[in-house]
Amino acid sequence: MSTNKLPTQADDFPAWYVEVVKRAELAEHGPAKGSMIIKPHGYAMWELTQRALDDRFKATGHENVYFPLLIPMSLLQQEADHVEGFAPQVAVVTRGGGQELEEPLAIRPTSEAIIWSTYKRWIQSYRDLPLLYNQWGNVVRWEMRTRLFLRTSEFLWQEGHTAHATAEHAQAETLRMLEVYREVAEDVLGIPVLKGRKSPGERFPGAVETYCIEGLMRDARALQCGTSHFLGQNFGKAYDVTFLNADGATEHAWGTSWGFSTRMIGGTIMAHGDDAGLRLPPAVAPIQVAIVPIFRTDDERASVLRVAEKLRADLAATGVRVRLDDRDQHRPGYKFAEWELKGVPIRIELGPRDVAAQRVVLASRLGGDKEEVALADVAAGMAERLASVQKALYADALAYRETNTHEIGSFDAFASGVAEQGGFWIGAWCGDAACEAEISTKTKATIRFLPLEPADPGAACVHCGKPGVDVATWARAY
Questions:
Q1: Between 375-403 and 263-272, two packed helices, what is the crossing angle to 10 degrees?
Q2: CA dihedral 328, 329, 335, 338 (to 10 degrees)
Q3: 57 and 194 belong to one structural domain
Q4: ∠227-229-232 over CA atoms, to 5°?
Q5: pLDDT at 350
Q6: Do 376 and 422 belong together in one domain?
Q7: How many CB atoms lie within 10 A of CB 395?
Q8: Distance, CA of 237 to CA of 252 (rounded, Å)
Q9: Which one in 59, 263, 360, 374 has a CA-CA gap of 20 to 30 Å to 84?
Q10: Residue 194 maps to which CATH number?
Q11: Co-location of 256 and 299 in the same domain
Q12: Residues 320, 467: one domain?
């Protein structure tokens, strides 16, 4: 671990982010341009996020499946809007086994094409519906500008793909999964998010409506934290997925898709971190408690480690993810700094005097406060302490978002404010795509979301002065 100080968030947030990812041993760049190697500490965060999502998927009736990574180009081309949207990012395999392939194969940028072409065989009657499936896997999107976790050419995610007999059922599914994403973002990752619709220009290619959750990072830039898409019958028609309804008539299936990715590890870093490194919500912290023994002599080492190991076992028995740091090659101060950098919510310090007094010192990563606690009370009270840290991190991030959310009084104030302060900016919009593009060109901000239901803003568009038809929330974003 480097002993040099991290860049500060205020001075250089991008440099701070890069150094935290590197020094906290979360990930590093892979040998291929834009690729990422996820290290154990980072992958453990993803596993905990994955488990939280997967438990909720199964609780809502979904099953996991797996589809191939390679997709014949002819399948991708059947859905013209989909192909056009992803065409610049699609990686294509043209040779295999030392020979030119008869048909090029796309490395999946997402799986609607291969899944809906398969659903055509699986669906014949309304009795076959709904299909509620989710896939855990990787996708490849050829990105020009990459940043670890936030935007890489290959990333891990889940993609849900469901088929329904009615538009109403598909729409309800779309919003149900958006709520699942909100739960995981807020209750697990501790990131306050806002739910809404994307503008037509920001929709997923091939979707009738795209819904999203959006969070605000510590540099006052927005991050799209998850999306859920109402596909209508677009993919059903593109791949001729039909069924006989209850009246015996043939119609096309209605669809949804929804995705949540390793980008959210980056979001967790940026929503909670401080100038000392990570501050991890206990729900997603690979190590919730680190025990650091302190001793000078071999006799002290033996007595302290005996108590420390018993404490570790007691904490583990209550379900706490605990690490006893008994490495002899590093001094306690080094260990304190390392666990602080890696965001461990609570550190326990235990020395000979503590053993004699039957106590420990608890150090909080959140506020840095230290507290002496009776050894006998540590394990029993740890769950409550961790829950308190979880709530406090969320509250801190929420307060930051509220401080950095603004109503647009004038376009000039918005343009200068979003450049100088960042944050969310809310105001009336005329609904015109050309106006949206002009605003983005002038401010480098995009519409992050519109309300879930269209809302009359009761005011003129903040830019062109035409009657407002919706309320738009703008921000500069990752």
A1: 90
A2: -140
A3: yes
A4: 175
A5: 97
A6: no
A7: 12
A8: 6
A9: 263
A10: 3.30.930.10
A11: no
A12: no
283 belongs to a structural domain: no
Q: What are phi and psi of 374, to 5 degrees?
A: -60, 135
Provide the pLDDT for residue 144.
82
Q: Exposed, middle or buried, 326 (CB in 10 Å: 0-12/13-18/19+)?
A: middle
Q: Are residues 438 and 299 in the same domain?
A: no
280 neighbors 187 (Cβ within 8 angstroms): no
Determine the distance from the C-alpha atom of residue 234 to the mean position of all C-alpha atoms in its chain, rounded to a whole number. Answer: 27
pLDDT at residue 206 tops 70: yes
Q: Is the pTM of this model over 0.85?
A: yes
Q: Which domain does 222 fall in, by range?
A: 13-272
Q: Are residues 351 and 262 in the same domain?
A: no
Question: What is the distance between the alpha carbons of residues 170 and 163, in angstroms, rounded to a whole number?
Answer: 7
pLDDT digits (tens, 9 = 90+) for 399-457: 999 999 999 999 999 999 999 999 999 999 999 999 999 999 999 999 999 999 998 99
pLDDT in tens, 314-356: 999 999 999 999 999 999 999 999 999 999 999 999 999 999 9
DSSP, residue by residue, 418-459: HHHT-SEEEEEE---HHHHHHHHHHHS-EEEEB-SS----SS
Residue 7 forms part of a structural domain:
no
User: Is 395 within the bounds of a domain?
Assistant: no
pLDDT value, residue 87: 78
218 and 261, same domain (yes or no): yes
- Read out DSSP for 141-178? ---SS-BTTTB-SEEEEEEEEEEESSHHHHHHHHHHHH
Total domain count, the chain: 3
